[in-house]
Amino acid sequence: MSAVSTSGIVVPARSRALREAVEVISSMRFAIALLSVICIASVIGTVVRQGEPYPNYVNQFGPFWARVFDAAGLYTVYSAWWFLLILTFLVTSTSLCIARNLPKIRHDVGTFKEHVRASSLKAFHHRAQGELALSREAAIARVDELLKAGGWAARAQSRGAVEGHASGVMVAARQGMANKLGYLCAHGAIVLVCIGGLLDGNLIVRAQMAFAGKVPYQGSGAVSSVAPEHVLSPSNPTYRGNLFVAEGQSSSTAVIQLGDGIVLQPLPFDIELKKFIVDYYDTGMPKLFASEVLIRDHATGQTTPATIKVNEPAIVHGVAIYQSSFDDGGSRLELKSWPLVPNAPSAELKGEVGASQPLQLPDGPATLELTGLRVINVENLGAAAQGGTDVRKVDLVQSLESHLGSGAKTRTEKTLTNVGPSISYKLRDAAGQAREFNNYMLPLTLDGQRVFLAGVRDNPNEGFRYLRIPADEQDSLDGWMRLRAALLDPSQRAEAVRRYVKMAAPADRPELVQQLTVSAGRALALFAGAEPARKDAQPVGGLQAIADFLDANVPQTDRARTSDVLIRILNGSLFELVNLTRERAGLAALPTDDKTQAFMGQAVISLSDSLLYPAPVLLMPTGFDQRQASVFQVTRAPGKNLVYAGCALLILGVFAMLYIRERRLWIWLEDAGEGRTQVTTALSCTRQTLDTDREFEQWKQALLGPAAEGSKDASR
Amino acid sequence: MNTTTSSTTSTTTLGSVRLGRPGAFSKRTTFDWVYAALILLGAGYAFSRYGQSMDVYERGILVGAVPLAIWLGWFWSPLRVLVIGVGAASLLAIGQYAQATDGFGADLAAGQQRFLLKWFLASQSAILWMSVLVFLSTLLYWVGLFTQRAGQQAGQANTALRLGSGFAWAAVFMALVGTMVRWYESHQIGADIGHIPVSNLYEVFVLFTWLTTLFFLYFESRYEQRAGAGQVRSLGAFVMLVVSAAVGFLLWYTVSREAHEIQPLVPALQSWWMKVHVPANFVGYGTFALAAMVAWAYLLKTASKRALGIAFVAVPLALAAVLGGFMLAGVSPETQGALVKSLRMVIGVAIFGALTLALRAPIVARLPALELLDDVMYKAIAVGFAFFTIATVLGALWAAEAWGGYWSWDPKETWALIVWLNYAAWLHMRLMKGLRGGVAAWWALIGLLVTTFAFLGVNMFLSGLHSYGEL
Questions:
Q1: Are A712 and A689 in contact (CB under 8 A)?
Q2: Mind telling me how many Å the CA of B354 is from chain A's nearest CA?
Q3: Which of A329, A402, A416, B113 is deepest in the core (most CB within 10 A)?
């Protein structure tokens, strides 16, 4: 019987070349070759990052290969001309394949094949023969019943004896013709999906670029200032673009990103963002992104409110609006600029996220770029406090038990805390070099100490390194900042040394007083970076300076002891320095308790670290007015319906092809005399599986009884 | 050919042949009806109790699940016992949990305190049991394979093989109980956190484990009627191996990453689509893996020693060398981690490949006939392909809603397409050109590599929308 053929169409064309071309294109081997190329291209598309700025590729591949790959379209594989060409070929090939098989399938579905010769049944793989003690009519009735029970549709042909062929009845039955329809469905689906997909790709946008004289726009600036050759027609049937709307603003122009620039797409409505809502779980994971918008229809002038969420788009005039991303829409920040160099005043600053402003720094002019505001930062502060689990401890029962129970717990306790807002900014110097900073507005408790975190990094691939500045008893930066300013002031240092010596040295031993004054003065000066550790060296400051000094001036054997003494002197002097600054600020002196000790300990470390802080100012947020922006994706995709119809057909087709087996059954009934009937039966199936063997075995048993002969393999 | 038939046999009267078209329900037993009634009751209760908090699609899914569950139970009768058992055990667990409450819902600390929960029914405990049972099952299948009488006519399965199947069933049971209880637990943590446990890599590995095992048990029971039980079951040694590998990964993931912690859903995943997309996908992954393991068994029987040596030992070792070379050359820390994991997998394959080669003769003598292996392979790939098609289409529909386009050439999507095309080509060659034997088996095995990359490799090496890091 005829199966679906896989070779190509042979058209009666005069040109041999044309004939052969059509044959190749419509054959299955060509289709499979195309699919293989699509596979390989797709793999390339997943390995080479798509649609990145060209310089990234030059970095990755070098200038030569970057250009070669660019020419091959590897940076936008899925819209490269050759990829689309392959898809077009695939559509053609599949269509031709359907066209080729359609007549055959129509013929197959229309016939029961009751005309086959009785003798040809012998050639079948599954066949059997036997005699029934029934008249021919009774036998036919019995066959009829069995076929009905088995769900077969059948047709019979009665034959008289002609030319050596015996007379008898040929019953032809069939089942599972939907398999053939499945074939049509599945292949038709591929065509539909490809056509739909091609429609919705950026093919039509690119056609407009080519034929309507539009060119990509490379600059930036306000939408209204963009020349009309960068703006597509509002009646553009298919596009996919992004729409950026800040809170309180509205927009009606989407931006379509092309490889070498953008084009603008006017929309038939404008969207005003009332409010962008981000909601978080306790774990700090985002829970909800939603935009409350007003959609103003240009045609009717009507305004409808809508809430657009991830997974819940809004659809207006066939344009679907998706929540795609979010950004800062220009939050206003209030900052305090703390100087980290001597004799500079602190200042108040204002700015907007996303904007940049000139900033006069003590070491020259710079540009301040405010890059972000995060209102909520959830951090796991538990892990650090616990100091980790001891992995060496082997306690089977306990470690087993730690894995029992509900799925809600973890072995290492997590303490998730919202540590409040943070801002990030960049300081760009006159040479264009930028450093990135990330500062938290509120102090947080680390290792039992309230500290402000001020982060810095030199390039975006690194993590931030944080300066931990201890908060004073008012939970503010002031105490530490006063101390730092005083440390850099020689006269205050001298006063602190004086007070320290007065407190620490017995007044009746002037030589000791003298000695201690020198030591304390030197320790503070070294620590402040006012005095080099070695002669002719640059002063470094901090604890490093003290260490260098000891290395240079104290013999190895005495170093540990001297170091102890020097650090104690340093700490004592710094404590006096703190109280000096407090006195001048009109505050009471710090009590000598654990809290003060912890503050001082952290202060010494952070002062030391702060001398390496790579900027002369520290900008700490003091207030903000958050203004968010929502990024929508707007798409008009008319090919979607084709694709969806194709998908439905595909599923139907695949199931029909795999699970409906097309089978044909023939029963040849011949008079055997004495009221008996000789029966020959054969089964054909397009698919050879064990199921077919079993089915035929059952059929044979039912029709002929257990001893019927003939088997599926008798002739082999 | 002898066409004369003895009249005594061929004239036998009709005997017990059923006449007429059988009624749609005529084969149903009392137990079938009891099962259907229980499903209906359960769904009805769930609907009345929780219907209010479901959206219209979720209600649709619940209603649709009823005929599906009934049909599945009627289609393959052992499922009835499984479903009822899992239901009962889950209800028992919920009953135990519900005895104490905390600020929100049941107090999950009971999972550490109550005997039944702590040692059997709490989700972590149940999944741990599942892991143990999968390993035991694999071990016993191997013991059974080697202690079985060699030769084509082996009929009954020996004790070890029977125990292997039993443990596999028990593993499926515990996995399902763990899944159900985990689902319940997720709803007791806090408002809006609860969700079906198919949302992250940990949860889908549990899904993969029980789906693959269950598919194997199905094929086992179906083919036992045609070939000797002993031979069919000996295939379990191969199939359960890939399940064991999955469980090994799961345990590593739990211990070193604490991935078992129930996490709430990010906005992109908050959709009813997840309930259908993910399981459909894993029917695909599971059966493709199953087909590949059967293909391995097939190749052990037919391929030359040299070909097997190259494929299962030399190629993995070469790949390991290449990966090692990459590591030495210096890559980013994330890629480094991914390479180490891949290296472990590849070396594991090489070791197992070498072992099967060394023990080839005794293994081959006890495996089922080639015809049967071929049939299992085809059936598994067919069902996997059909479901993978559904999953991909559902994925496209979901993507259209969540990301604004039904197809965005995201790496995961693209690799799913590659997997789909690969098996589409396999089925084409088989159905249209009658491809069988060694080539089909090699191809099915390579298919598993492609599938594994689509499943794990993409997550490890490529980034994209499926990592949910965008929004």
A1: no
A2: 31
A3: A329
